[in-house]
Specification:
Blueprint lengths: L2 E2 L2 H12 L4 E4 L6 H8 L5 E4 L3 H15 L3 E5 L3 H4 L2 H10 L3 E7 L25 E4 L8 H8 L9 H29 L2 E7 L7 E2 L20 H13 L3 E5 L9 H8 L4 E4 L15 H10 L3 H8 L3 E5 L6 H9 L4 E6 L12 E4 L2 H8 L10 H21 L5 H11 L5 E4 L3 H6 L9 E4 L9 H10 L5 E6 H6 L14 E6 L5 H4 L7 H6 L9 H6 L3 E5 L2 H11 L7 E6 L5 H13 L1
Parallel strand pairs: 2-3, 2-4, 4-5, 5-7, 6-7, 9-10, 9-11, 11-12, 12-13, 14-15, 14-16, 16-17, 17-19, 18-19
Antiparallel strand pairs: 1-8
Helix pairs in contact: 1-2, 1-7, 3-5, 3-17, 10-11, 10-12, 10-23, 14-23, 15-22
């Protein structure tokens, strides 16, 4: 096995290996060559080559989203590292562990006119758990360092002092690298390590020159105080109307026995979303289906007061539904608690308590202390929800082929025990209106809710699972991230379904002057593009349809095994999708 000659690169590779960070996503370059050599020469690591750094970062995010272990990103210097920023922001808000390794020029080469050189230190400062700027080795490329010193005012660095400096530099770098990797592991988020290295960059040795010390990370320990849990249980038992809202959440993170106990309490409403990945027949998975019709009802204010909880408990990440946010901000509970290992957002403007623990650990202690009611709050709203479901089915029975109808057909054919990745905007919102098979695990980049990176994330996620993965995406999101298909790591069972309505359909649902030149160009961004040529260029099988019956037939074998991944493009009517969706909520209210 070969090792890079540069000590700081040896140290990084060795400590990544020691801490079990084995997935490395590399974008080609020269300045990062020492680390590329170190990772690719070591059989411990699984290395992935992705040319486009923005795609590479979302690819890594998808892998880490599934494994919940840090994935390392490696790029060259200059603007390359800036292309990581969208995925880093997503990882920051979604609590996904990424280790960003950016190769850099030595400090004395910054801002002197050298190419591919920018101010990389602390470049992600506002959206990163920690920025670590390593020091340049002085026992490598000593001649260049001394040459640079000749142009400085005294005191000068000498050859002897360079040797003496290397010991302290190595100690400092080891300390910072340990801290960075441990932070990503412990707090489940992105960290940035910036590594200045001088040429020559491609030299290798047969044995490492450093043996860095691995400082073990501290496992997460929640802060559950018995007296405080007792006080919370007392308030819970006194409340007649309790509500739980679950945001983005990993599948199988809550013991089924606890889910069953929560579901047995008739004084509790549990609101979930498609990305909550928690299911029970007594839970309420389609929040907007329940709340949106109330807004339109003549007795909406009275109904909202009936729905208003005395006590709200939340856990999980971001919540998609704007309806539930607006409702709980206006009709606030007396108490709002959030349970989570890391942070609590005051989404509803009434947060009073943050319990820093995993929801599973919290419920293990909390649930034995609570009293389950057999009748009450939930009974009425279960009846309302059941009526909503009946109306939902009837509306879809008579619905012409639109985005809404396409989603109904797609969801009837998705393979069980598979993984579903969703793009943002219309896609994730349509999904909230359907009950999805509980064996299907669902994900979406809801940290920043951008349309960028959805394909890259899905491809990365597919490599971290044994089961097949399907991405459902809108047309703009697909074209935006089509560089993701320039990827040598695609699985044959990977599937993409593109809903092409000729523009940003979500803007037709929002208030505004539709069908004007200004709207068509700058909001909806109307277009005539199709995915066909892109799919074929990257070696995907491609099929398309604009009819419901034909879509049914295509989906019957779309998920069957093939030797190539597949794209299915569904064309829907641009000008009527919004009409039928808005009429849907009017129909439900009756």
């Amino acid at each position: 096995m070969k090792y890079t000659k540069i000590p700081v690169a040896q140290t990084l590779v060795a400590l990544c290996e020691a801490k079990g960070i084995h997935d490395i996503v590399i974008s080609p370059g020269s300045r990062n060559a020492p680390l590329t050599i170190g990772f690719t020469e070591n059989p411990t690591f699984s290395c992935y080559s992705i040319v486009d750094e923005r795609c590479a970062a979302f690819f890594a995010l998808g892998m880490a989203q599934q494994s919940q272990r840090p994935v390392a990103l490696l790029c060259t210097s200059g603007s390359a590292v800036l292309n990581y920023y969208p995925a880093i922001a997503e990882a920051f808000y979604s609590d996904i562990p990424l280790v960003v390794l950016s190769a850099d020029r030595p400090r004395y080469r910054i801002d002197i006119g050298d190419g591919q050189t920018i101010r990389q230190d602390n470049v992600f400062d506002r959206h990163i758990l920690g920025s670590f700027n390593l020091r340049q080795d002085t026992d490598h490329a000593s001649e260049q360092i001394l040459s640079r010193e000749k142009h400085k005012m005294p005191p000068f660095i000498t050859e002897r002092s360079l040797v003496e400096m290397q010991t302290s530099i190595q100690q400092k770098n080891e300390k910072d690298i340990n801290a960075a990797l441990n932070l990503a592991i412990e707090q489940q988020g992105p960290v940035h390590v910036n590594i200045p290295m001088e040429e020559p960059l491609y030299e290798v040795v047969d044995k490492p020159s450093v043996l860095p010390a691995n400082i073990a990370h501290a496992p997460f320990q929640g802060r559950l105080v018995t007296e405080e849990i007792d006080r919370m249980a007392k308030l819970w038992n006194e409340a007649e109307k309790k509500m739980i809202v679950v945001g983005v959440h990993q599948p199988n993170a809550i013991d089924q026995a606890m889910i069953n106990q929560l579901a047995s309490d008739a004084s509790l409403l549990v609101f979930t979303e498609t990305t909550s990945n928690i299911h029970h027949e007594h839970f309420f998975p389609s929040i907007d289906k329940l709340i949106a019709p109330i807004e339109k009802h003549t007795e909406g204010e009275q109904n909202f007061k009936g729905l208003q909880p005395d006590l709200l408990l939340t856990f999980g990440g971001m919540v998609v539904s704007k309806k539930v946010k607006a409702f709980l901000r206006k009709f606030q509970p007396k108490e709002h608690w959030h349970v989570g290992p890391k942070k609590a957002y005051d989404t509803y403007f009434c947060l009073q308590k943050f319990v820093q623990a995993s929801p599973n650990d919290f419920f293990k202690i909390f649930l034995p202390k609570i009293v389950t009611r057999r009748a009450g709050y939930r009974d009425h709203w279960s009846t309302v929800m059941q009526n909503r479901r009946i109306r939902h089915e009837k509306y879809l029975d008579d619905l012409p082929f639109t985005d809404f109808k396409a989603f109904e057909v797609i969801l009837q054919h998705l393979p069980k025990n598979s993984n579903l990745q969703l793009s943002n905007s219309s896609t994730i919102r349509y999904m909230q209106l359907f009950d999805v098979d509980p064996t299907i695990r669902q994900y979406c980049n809801r940290g920043t809710s951008g349309i960028d990176g959805s394909i890259s994330t899905a491809i990365g996620a597919s490599l971290a699972r044994d089961e097949s993965t399907t991405l459902i995406t809108g047309d703009l999101s697909f074209f935006y991230d089509s560089n993701a298909l320039w990827n040598g790591h695609l699985r044959n069972d990977f599937r993409i379904i593109v809903i092409n309505n000729g523009g940003g359909g979500i803007f037709r649902i929002l208030p505004g002057n539709k069908d004007t030149l200004n709207f068509d160009t700058y909001f909806e961004t109307q277009h005539q593009l199709t995915a066909k040529s892109i799919a074929e260029m990257y070696g995907f099988e491609y099929v398309s349809t604009s009819e419901g019956e034909e879509l049914e037939k295509m989906l019957e074998d779309f998920f069957e095994p093939t030797i190539r991944p597949k794209v299915l493009e569904i064309f829907t009517p641009r000008k009527t999708n919004d009409k039928y969706l808005l009429e849907y909520f009017e129909y439900l209210k009756d």
